[in-house]
Amino acid sequence: MTIGLRIARLRKSAGLSQEALAAQLNVSRQAIGKWEADASLPGLDNLQELARALNVSCDELLTGRAPETPSPAAQPTLSAEGVKALLDETEHRRSVHYKRAALLIGGVLALLVVLLAKSLTDTTARVNDLRAQVDRLTTEVNNIESGIDTRMGSIESSIRQSLNEGASILAGWDYALGQYDPVSRTVPLSLQAVPKAVSEGATAFFRIDFEDREPLTLPAVSENGIFTAETDLPLNDYYAVTVGLTADGVTQLEQLYDERDLSRQYTLTVDFEEVDYTSGGIGYHPARIKVNDLSLEVGYPVQFEDGNAELIAYPVHAALDCLLGDEVLFTAPIDDAILAERVEIARVHAVEQARLEQGTASVWLGYTLRLDEEFQLEQTVEEVNAGRLRFRLTITDSNGTVTTHFAP
Questions:
Q1: Are residues 19 and 155 in the same domain?
Q2: Closest of 176, 197, 310, 182 to residue 247, by C-alpha
Q3: Hey, what's the torsion of the CAs at 343, 348, 350, 352, to 10 degrees?
Q4: Segments in 77-123 forming alpha helices (H)
Q5: Distance between CA 312 and CA 351 in Å, rounded?
């Protein structure tokens, strides 16, 4: 017996019409009709409400077998066997719908072949009309398949989420990052975990794993069944936090979360895009290079808190080096006042963004720095043309950190 037939039998046994059952579940009568006709499956929430309304367990509704130890009708349960039955039914219906869709497309194509074979002398308009009909039918089939995938995927996702929540050892957890310290290049991290059950003498710890350094283990402090720990988190590109609970000599682990690009949230990001320059001179005469301007994309890290915005780092000094291979041909200093103007623009954007942000983020500005300086070289044009000419931008930020960036 299918799940749909089972729903219909149980509904009739309970003396309920489709309208009455739909009213109890707060769904449409058409939804009940589709369930009973095996045209669709109830979602996880509707499944539990349906079992409660029909005074059976979810397992009995899905498998047709009553549990050995009946649970109260007010609290229908879903065991691993019931989950398997629902997943099997989901997969079966997906397969059936795909087969029907394939048969429909095959039939349409076969019909098209027959019609075209009989209509070789027909006009082009008739052929185009047939093609349009096939296109419409193909679109309808694709829509059916898309709807099936979406519905089945939603059901499977709900089931897996329910199972994951049931397997968790925690009732809840949380974390918070504090103000970045540019001297130590660390961020205060507070961790909290609330186990589902805490036995006497139970202990806990938090482990932080990194990509480029040894793991950090933090013993947790317990108060009123809540375990907490604090540390100064070093800037890094990736870290993952896991909690461990030990009770009666058994330790259980559960990963809480992971985060990438942490360092990008607190450090200046510079994309050195292009240098506009021209070179002059001929043959073996000394070369001249004129630097016109350079284009940058700069991400200014910002700390947002209570509607206020504070730049964590910003450029204060910069210089442009022209290199031939590894040899510096000349250095073009960049006016600090020009950088300061861009910093003020970034501050204005940060203040505007503060109404919507909390924590850290980056304010990105793309701009062009005008240099307009010419340099006479000792090297000849031939030497410059034969070598590898490139440009390097050196920036010192407000925290004293020096970084170098090369133009592509």
A1: yes
A2: 197
A3: -170
A4: 80-118
A5: 13
Based on the structure, what is the number of domains in the chain? Answer: 3
Alpha carbon distance 79, 350 (integer Å): 52
Q: Is the pTM of this model over 0.85?
A: no
Integer Cα distance of 299 and 365 in angstroms: 7
Nearest one of 16, 84, 81 to 50, comparing CA atoms: 16
Give CA–CA dist 400/184, Å, rounded.
Answer: 12
Q: How far apart are CA 374 and CA 163, in angstroms?
A: 69
Domain boundary among 202, 228, 262: 262
Q: Are 294 and 319 within 8 A, CB to CB?
A: no
The Cα-based distances of 356 to 106, 308, 313, 319, 350 in angstroms read 54, 10, 20, 35, 10
Among the candidates 230, 262, 294, a domain finishes at 262
What are the pLDDT tens digits along the chain (408 aa)? 788 888 888 888 888 888 888 888 888 888 888 888 887 888 777 888 888 888 888 878 878 776 655 544 444 556 666 666 666 666 666 666 566 666 666 666 676 666 666 665 556 666 677 777 777 777 766 666 666 666 666 655 555 555 454 568 999 999 999 889 988 999 999 999 999 988 888 999 999 999 888 999 999 999 988 999 999 999 888 999 999 999 888 999 999 999 988 888 899 999 999 999 998 888 788 999 999 999 999 999 998 888 889 999 999 999 999 999 999 999 999 999 999 999 999 999 999 887 777 788 889 999 999 999 999 999 999 988 888 899 999 999 999 999 999 997
Burial 364-380 (b: 16+ CB within 10 A, else e): eeeeebebeeeeebebb
